[in-house]
Amino acid sequence: MVCDTKSSLSMALTLPLNGSTPAMPKAVSSGGYITVVPRNKLGVAKINTVVDSMRASSPTRKSHDSDDHKAWILGHPSALSMFKEIIHASKGKQIVMFLDYDGTLSPIVEDPDRAFMANEMRQAVRDVSKYFPTAIVSGRCIAKVFNFVRLEEVYYAGSHGMDIKGPRKGHLDKKENQALLCQPARESLPMIDEVYKKLVDKTTYIGGAKVENNKFCLAVHFRCVDEKRWVELADHVRSILKEYPKLRISQGRKVLEIRPNIKWDKGNAVEFLLESLGYDANSNDVFAIFIGDDRTDEDAFKVLRNSRQGSGILVSNFPKETNAVYTLREPYEVMNFLRRLVEFKEGC
C-alpha cells in the first residue's frame, strides 16, 4: 500500500482483506490538548509561550491520595480492573492493537538511545501479534523502533505515522510477506536533514540538549537541560524554524517535535492502517486499542473515541487531560494487559 498526500491517491501494492483499496484517511485535528505552533505563527510568538509549553510537558506529580487524583481515576479507570468490560465491548469484533513505544513499551530514560525494551515485554508483544494485528506507532523513525523491538510480525508507523511499513512475516490476517508503505511527507526529507544539521550546530553548546533525526521529523530533547537554559534553547529552535514555513513545532514529553506542516498525525496513521486491514470508518466489526503515554497519542485516542471503533488507554501515573477511556500506570502494567489479552484469546 503506497499513500501519497500530493495526489490524494492510494496505490495498492497489496489488497486489504475486503479486496478494496483504502482511501486516504481524513485529516484529524489535534484538539486543545496538544500545543502546536505552526511555523507561520512562530515568528511572532513570544519565546515565553514555547517555554511555558516546555514546562507543561512535565507537570508536578500529585499524590495518589489527593481528591483530584481519585476523581481522575474514577473518570479514567484502570484497563486491568476494567478488562472484562473491554473484552465485552470487543465481542464479535476483530481486536487490532496499536502501541506507542517510549513510555509505553519501554520506560522513559534520560538518554533516548538507551530506551531499551525488556525481553519480557518483547515476548508479550510477540504473543499478542500472533492473535491480533499489531502496530508500533512512534515518534521515532522506523529503523530506530525496529532496532529496539526486533519483531518482524508487527506493523511499524514511525515519525508520528509519516512512515508506515507492514510486517515482514505473515500473521492472523494471512497477508503473508506483503509490504505496506505510506510516506505522506517524503518530499520534506531534504529539508528535514538541512534543519537537523542547523539545530545540531546551534544547540551543541547547550549542556544536555540532544537533537534526534527521526527521518520525517526531528526531536529536540531537553530532559537533561538546565531549566535556566530553556529560553536559550527555545530561541535557537525558533530562529531556525522562522526560515522554514513548511515545518511546525509541537510539544511532547520533555521534547520539542519538529515535523512537516501537513495534516497527518498518529490518528491518521491509525485510520490508514485500519483501512489497510479492511476496516473503514463505517466498519462495526473491529475494535482497536491504542496504548500510549504522550500528547501525540491523543490524536489516536480522539480518532477511536469519535469513530467508536475502539478505546484509548493512557499510560500515566498522574492525572492528565486525555481522550483516552482507560489508564495504565506504567509499562509493567502494559505488559500485564497484553498478557491478559493473550490468555483471553487462548482460553476461547
Give the structure's gist in a few sentences.
33% of the residues lie in helices and 18% in strands. α10 links the parallel β13 (286-292) and β14 (310-315).
Number of strands: 15
Strand proportion: 15-25%
Give the C-alpha Rg: 20 Å
Distance between the termini: 33 Å
Strand order of the largest sheet: 2-1-8-7-6-5-4-13-14-15
Number of helices: 11
Helix content: 25-40%
Q: Give the SSE string.
A: EEEHHHHEHEHEEEHEEHEEHEHEEH
Major sheet description:
10 strands, mixed
Shape: globular
Structural class by SSE content: alpha/beta
Sequence stretches where pLDDT stays below 50 over 5 or more residues:
6-44, 172-177
Mean pLDDT: 84
Describe the structure.
- 33% of the residues lie in helices and 18% in strands.
- The protein has eleven helices and 15 strands.
- The longest helix is centred in the last third of the chain and has 16 residues, at 331-346.
- Mean pLDDT is 84; it is low at 6-44 and 172-177.
- Its EC number is 3.1.3.12.
- This is Trehalose 6-phosphate phosphatase.
- Belongs to the trehalose phosphatase family.
